[in-house]
Design brief:
The protein has helices at 6-9, 114-125, 155-172, and strands at 4-5, 16-23, 34-42, 46-60, 67-82, 105-106, 111-112. It is α+β, with helices and mostly antiparallel strands.
Length: 173
């Protein structure tokens, strides 16, 4: 995918460009190319970027270490602010950062890279816990014992806990 020159968006109908995606994304190992559609709209002082894409990736299960396929799809929208003309070009090395500063910005006369943005969105959509399924051989087996096993080192504490509970019931009745 080619980078989009941001001022060019202002000359397009609706100030918007739609990109049909059917490509491999660099750095993202997928079984099939990423497929979908992305729209980039110039909103004056921001870009509105939306995408609906899907692909299939191979992951490694955190429990059993087997490889499994996972369908990865996104339906997202993000606003990317364009830097204002009066923003200082050279900032000090150290400065206090406010919550408002924690947003992505691009220069209004720069380029938007759709492949980098799409890579970031797909990476964020990957599951944190990678488990191959309900029948994972690495899943812990539930015990059929109704009473939990008490470590003998804690037995005296369990007796004390029961005595406190009985005393509490007697005093509150």
């Amino acid at each position: 995918m080619e980078a989009i020159y941001i001022p060019r968006l202002l000359k397009l109908p609706g100030r918007q460009e739609e990109i049909k995606i059917q490509d491999d994304i660099a750095g993202l190992n997928t079984l099939i190319p990423v497929r979908g559609i992305m729209a980039v709209r110039h909103g004056g002082n921001y870009l509105e970027v939306s995408a609906q894409t899907e692909t299939i990736i191979t992951l490694v299960c955190d429990r059993c270490l087997q490889h499994y396929n996972h369908r990865l799809s996104i339906d997202t929208l993000e606003l990317i602010w364009l830097e204002s003309e009066q923003a200082p070009k050279h900032l000090p090395l150290e400065r206090e950062v406010t919550v408002e500063d924690l947003s992505e910005t691009l220069p209004p006369d720069g380029y938007f890279k759709p492949d980098s943005w799409l890579y970031e969105q797909l990476s964020l959509a990957m599951p944190l816990r990678r488990i191959c399924g309900k029948d994972c051989p690495g899943a812990s087996q539930t015990s059929a014992v109704t009473e939990p096993h008490i470590d003998s080192r804690w037995a005296s504490l369990a007796v004390l806990k029961e005595q406190i509970a009985k005393n509490y019931e007697q005093n509150n009745t």
